[in-house]
From TrEMBL:
GO CC entries: cytoplasm; nucleus
Subunit structure: Monomer.
Taxonomy of the source species: Eukaryota, Viridiplantae, Streptophyta, Embryophyta, Tracheophyta
Cofactor requirements of the protein: Mg(2+)
Protein name, entry field: UMP-CMP kinase
GO biological process: 'de novo' pyrimidine nucleobase biosynthetic process; pyrimidine nucleotide biosynthetic process
Keywords: ATP-binding, Cytoplasm, Kinase, Nucleotide-binding, Nucleus, Pyrimidine biosynthesis, Transferase
Amino acid sequence: MRGGLVASARLLPRPLVRWFLQRRAQQDINENMLGGKKVKIIFVLGGPGSGKGTQCSNIVEHFDFIHLSAGELLRAEINSGSENGTMIDTIITEGKIVPSEITIKLLQEAIIKGGNDKYIIDGFPRNEENRVVFESVTLVTYFQLLEISISPEFVLFFDCSEEEMERRLLGRNQGRSDDNIETIRKRLKVFVESSLPVIEYYESKGMVKKIDATKPAPEVFEDVKAIFTHMA
Ligand SMILES: Nc1ncnc2c1ncn2[C@@H]1O[C@H](COP(=O)(O)OP(=O)(O)OP(=O)(O)O)[C@@H](O)[C@H]1O
Ligand SMILES: O=c1ccn([C@@H]2O[C@H](COP(=O)(O)O)[C@@H](O)[C@H]2O)c(=O)[nH]1
Ligand SMILES: [Mg+2]
């Protein structure tokens, strides 16, 4: 049946087919749709060690979301032996921010591959440039040339004191090259200087749901659960 439709479409004038597909894609763009589904994206932000990864794991156990950690995608890229691997590794070890085009390409691929319509994106956008570029991201739906603006439903912000974040990272023990006191201090500085402005931007739009992340993890999850339960 589908093959028949494709064959029939081939008989139509190309400009007409192109116009039809572009119109459909434009409708999808206007409604934040991907492949006919409304895509829901939630940004999970907070300082290093605030508990983003821990809580995202809890969220996917209870709610139908796919968890994409930008940091994990970058670490996987290093381990894959990609040509950018060494450069990404150096940037992470220095606690700096990887160029937007690299991180966004990995997120785009993961979103398309995920095939779901609900994503929690953990640890991204890291700076204003990340945010602006992602909001005009090009997702390949019908034509490569279409610009699809994906804006988050809301931003979940894990608010935690620096002392507590530092203590947690020093005790994490997962063999990460950036879990040493020198890099941790750099990451905390980058968070304040580059990532907090992103949270302030969304705050000014009334899109931030702030969580007290200094509490024990199960208590933090109770607060997170309440937000996700109410959005369903
Ligand atoms: N509420 C909490 N109380 C105490 N320890 C916690 C809490 N949440 C997470 N942890 C622990 O703190 C460490 C950091 O947590 P997690 O990896 O979830 O943070 P993160 O925000 O994803 O950090 P990063 O930005 O470095 O990836 C882990 O060892 C985790 O088990
Ligand atoms: O959007 C991003 C996300 C991460 N990075 C770099 O990776 C490390 C680790 O990220 P975590 O979220 O803590 O796992 C981070 O310090 C950055 O160096 C990035 O550049 N852009
Ligand atoms: Mg993490």
